[in-house]
Amino acid sequence: MVMNRKRHFFSASDARTDLALEAHEMHSGQGGVPGVHISEQKMPDATVTRVNISSPQGEEMLGKPQGNYITIEARGLRERNRQLQERIAAIFAEELQRLMPQQDRLRIFVVGLGNWNATPDALGPQVVSNLLITRHLHDDVPTDVQGGLRSVCAIAPGVLGLTGIETGEIIMGIVQQIKPDIVIAVDALAARHVDRIFTTIQISDTGISPGSGVGHKRVGINQQTLSIPVLAVGVPTVVHAVTIASNTVELLVKQLRREEQAFYEIIAEMGEQDQQRLINEVLTPAVGSLMVTPKEIDVYIEDFAKVVAGGMNIAFHPGIDSEQAFSYLN
Amino acid sequence: MVMNRKRHFFSASDARTDLALEAHEMHSGQGGVPGVHISEQKMPDATVTRVNISSPQGEEMLGKPQGNYITIEARGLRERNRQLQERIAAIFAEELQRLMPQQDRLRIFVVGLGNWNATPDALGPQVVSNLLITRHLHDDVPTDVQGGLRSVCAIAPGVLGLTGIETGEIIMGIVQQIKPDIVIAVDALAARHVDRIFTTIQISDTGISPGSGVGHKRVGINQQTLSIPVLAVGVPTVVHAVTIASNTVELLVKQLRREEQAFYEIIAEMGEQDQQRLINEVLTPAVGSLMVTPKEIDVYIEDFAKVVAGGMNIAFHPGIDSEQAFSYLN
Amino acid sequence: MVMNRKRHFFSASDARTDLALEAHEMHSGQGGVPGVHISEQKMPDATVTRVNISSPQGEEMLGKPQGNYITIEARGLRERNRQLQERIAAIFAEELQRLMPQQDRLRIFVVGLGNWNATPDALGPQVVSNLLITRHLHDDVPTDVQGGLRSVCAIAPGVLGLTGIETGEIIMGIVQQIKPDIVIAVDALAARHVDRIFTTIQISDTGISPGSGVGHKRVGINQQTLSIPVLAVGVPTVVHAVTIASNTVELLVKQLRREEQAFYEIIAEMGEQDQQRLINEVLTPAVGSLMVTPKEIDVYIEDFAKVVAGGMNIAFHPGIDSEQAFSYLN
Amino acid sequence: MVMNRKRHFFSASDARTDLALEAHEMHSGQGGVPGVHISEQKMPDATVTRVNISSPQGEEMLGKPQGNYITIEARGLRERNRQLQERIAAIFAEELQRLMPQQDRLRIFVVGLGNWNATPDALGPQVVSNLLITRHLHDDVPTDVQGGLRSVCAIAPGVLGLTGIETGEIIMGIVQQIKPDIVIAVDALAARHVDRIFTTIQISDTGISPGSGVGHKRVGINQQTLSIPVLAVGVPTVVHAVTIASNTVELLVKQLRREEQAFYEIIAEMGEQDQQRLINEVLTPAVGSLMVTPKEIDVYIEDFAKVVAGGMNIAFHPGIDSEQAFSYLN
Fold this sequence. Notes:
4 copies of one chain form a homotetramer. By secondary structure, chain A is α/β, with parallel strands linked by helices. Chain A is built from 15 helices and 8 strands. Chain A has helices spanning 2-10, 12-15, 20-28, 56-62, 82-99, 123-129, 143-148, 160-163, 167-178, 223-226, 241-259, 263-269, 272-283, 297-316, 322-327; strands at 36-42, 47-53, 67-73, 108-112, 152-155, 182-191, 200-204, 230-239. Chain A has an 8-stranded mixed beta sheet, sandwiched between helices. In chain A, strand 1 and strand 2 (47-53) form a beta hairpin. The radius of gyration of chain A is 21 Å and the shape is globular. At the B-C interface, helix 15 of B face helix 15 of C.
């Protein structure tokens, strides 16, 4: 069956994307998925897309748990411009607040997933190191100031290979000890298209599923396991190499179907420049001399850690403004 | 009262040492402390000193909880010689094993205290990153190999100022979740004399008391709080500046008492060289151009993290030899 | 012309390999290249291949300057085993010595190309930081010891984007000032196949050509520009993403030519597993969950920096043995 | 001779300060030094002091070459407030411009002295990594934009122990190659008083003398050696431990002279609190739990690197404003 064959090139397992937006795009040509609602909002600096998955069928087709997924895309983030970073941080803060419980006193526990020592996976720990941490000061603070500063604590527990302990176990132990109202997990993600790397922030209210993220967690960090709301914040920092090759084949086939010609002829007739163009279509727009992670990944990770932490500082603490939110960044 | 006055210059609060050995030295001139036993063993590369505190009086005078304190001193460790480092690691492994429960199956949880981002306090996290971690592999390993590889897991939770959570709370939560048989806490220490910096390893079976270590923990990590045995491993990486000044005054007074002269006269008559010699007596033997932490602290921290982690790998896993123990180091 | 069409898929510009061995492989199906000689030596731990390019035609076809290229391949290097690393370092040292002038007194200047802050490009600086540096001590050393320790100095000047100065200009200025006998430039390389990443060391006596290496130098660092012999040592740390896609297409075409069928039929008939196998053929053997650079690139860079620096310490200083050579590593 | 004896306590060699301001303070009680002029300007956020040494006698007494020394002191810099940092950077930029040649086209070469891997000595390299580098882009830039962006290049060559080459030799070689109009050398300094650590920036038009700075350069980097103007920018990051002890003794003696009593009596009568106060007088105001370098040195180094680099970006490029100057910081 053609439909069936076609799915081979678009299956979620090939795609290896952690973005609900991309998972949805892969099915968008088929007239929409039942129980999946999507809306887009264009702003001067960024595009915000909201994907809501509300049916088991949508959950299965997109390979993502039911819930809300907000994606903020801003190509400009690659330009390393601090003013723009602050504007995007403010947009991110607003979207994050939408998914947070609407209450003044909220004890927030941020978990920075990933590995300090593997650059593409270091986003979570770097965000944690840039947060304004207040839980330990909270009892000393006058009540009127407490209104402006919520109780925030955070940890970057490290990855299974380095600790020998599932991150889920560590978080569960600490949550039972300190009893926060909400967990916000930050992680590096894998995207399907290179133009999503270091341009995109995803927020969801589904927590972290086992096996997602760059570091492949095996135990979920979500409301089922922790019994409190869990938000997940992620930034695509890599495309899997297998996705690149998969995209290449897929594009060839699309081209072929359109042309209805024997492939060999097409390839044979294509000049070097045509092929280069074809491949470039797969890989463009790329970040510099793209290596699936950009070579300059270290500075991009640092930039995004600041945008995410700056936005969190704004969203968490009603009493501090955007300028102050960035004053705490390392 | 002279005795009383004298105590001013020797009080434990001035001294700010985390080493039981140094705390004992401060009282050694007074004919020993009741309930404190000390023995020394000289080896070619190192001197091992064992201090046992077994009375409340000893506890109070030395300012250290009752228990065993083993100190390994090796000046050669500053020379950055790998062979010597491996020999010291083997001695450390042997002493560590003395204080560990003598049982084959022992699930070990190592806690690296301190702060990745403050070099003098980064020892604990760096040790953790050099350990051979096995807990997550353990179920997959054949039983006969399991005999040679104990279950080891580890975490470097970060410091209160960065997490907002007392390290004791974090460890308690994780211990209740994963139920290890023993906790081994690794920390950077403050010494009283500069010649102990980066030459010394202390092991104790008392755990970590509140307020000790370079990072000043406020909650204890010990058998009382965790209900399992807790060993503490520490390496002096700093002398507090106040200790330097205190030592200076103390030495002047000693000098004075000996000479029985008016101080001004002495000072006035002392030439520049004499004064320099006096000050050098306080500060020598120094590490390079000493700045209380040596300028080269970054490399010393790295070296000691390898010695401690290498020794732990030997002590934890009966099935691997010294050569292998160092193969896992970063 | 078929020959011409075929070249499209095999052109040096597509391949983007810095390895002469790979450049040669791309032409090996065509019955050899005139003026290019290749020989292979299999050892228990490694395979050493020697490529000699001695004709302008070979130079043009392989896209590499005339000279000698020695490649040491050792898959085991990914296993992070220190003993194996030391054995490979000894092999590397021997091959490096073959290309060095055979004279006792040799003042060596090592240049670590690349960028501290971009992990895939950090090999050169990390090698420099692990070398045994002697030039500044040399005048103080007795003559008989000088025989065992050659004069070695080194610099990691940083990349054009960070300094604003061509690396070639910096090196030229320093060479004219300190007048060494030989320059050895160390750099991270791009390979064509993923199985060459972090398994391979290349040594050549051609120096560094403009545009080669991960960081794309624009000015050559070679005998023409510096008037002294220049060796280049390189380790592939990345495959360009464009190469991955290019390899994918190429493999499809090869498959097609063999089968002599219409491509669409093949693709249409291929099940998902067949396609996956095809793509895996492009990408396997991969390092972990391959992202063109492995996620664990930080630790591999560190490992290789030690192998290369350890081997250089052996090759440079006849008076120190293998064990000592590694004692100086950070 | 009393005068002579007194000098013992105030000799430049004891003081080990790289700040002309402190060197001057040590002589200020003596009614001024001939040929040394000093003026102070108090601002809301900072105090700017200008010391001019114009006589050989002043040069000898202060232990600093003849020339201008501008010191910007701002206690607030320890509070890690970004807005304040930007205001201080603007003040620094203005003072730096005073000492720079007043010409539009000025090709500037910045040298970051010190050692990436020794935190107290890492200021210079970190400043370099935060500069807006333009030299390599300059030929591509339209002439009208060139007016706003001067040609800036930079290097952090590393220290003698790591390179085997005197920093002076490296700089000389590069200067002869690229022929800049001015060299600006940035270095970490040693102060005499702990309250100058991480509160102070010194600018001078004398370049770097042999033996100054935390890393003890042996060859000067100044107009005599390079034949072009050389400015030096320094930030005190340490007090030598010997200075701490020296200060302690000095203070005791001062106390003694005032009281005109026998020292032993004073000491004997002093309670513990009095002594503590005395010592605290030596060490206060201290940064946190002072260890001569503050434990949090890593973050302070990062902050100051940004202040210095941000100020340089403003001073170097007339076409960019303060906000933009900080956009380029890592």
